[in-house]
Amino acid sequence: MLWDAVFPEEEPDATLTEGQTIEVAGARLTVLHTPGHAPGSVCLHSPELAVLFSGDTLFQGGPGATGRSFSDFDTIVASVTDRLLTLPGETLVLTGHGDSTTIGAEAPDRQKWIDDQA
Prior knowledge:
This protein has 118 residues and is an alpha+beta fold. The chain has one domain (33-117): Ribonuclease Z/Hydroxyacylglutathione hydrolase-like (Metallo-beta-lactamase, Chain A), CATH 3.60.15.10. The chain is 25% helix and 26% strand. The protein has helices at residues 2-6, 73-84, 103-106, 110-117, and strands at 21-24, 27-33, 42-46, 51-55, 58-59, 62-63, 92-95, 101-102. A six-stranded mixed beta sheet has the order 1-2-3-4-7-8. Strands 5-6 form a two-stranded antiparallel sheet. Helix 2 packs antiparallel against helix 4. The longest helix has 12 residues, at 73-84. The radius of gyration is 14 Å and the shape is globular. The model has no long low-confidence stretch (mean pLDDT 94).
């Protein structure tokens, strides 16, 4: 969706699918489909390194931005809840913007994010 809007004349080099494993600089990363910020949003998780590259899905202090026409707050909270907060608490979250955090630091505030949005 967004690729086509930005690059209407080009095809992507490849697509990522849920559960796919890719190797980058010797690290194995598992693709987690985490829609909400955008329909095709993904996070990359390395269990061996105990690291999650969350992009714009999870930041320190809550989920990523959902104020755009293609984003949705309930969807991103579901993605964070079902796909990310199930990871070990010590998992380091390297965000797309701002400071890093951990799953354990963010998990207790899930209900607060929902209440603040209401």
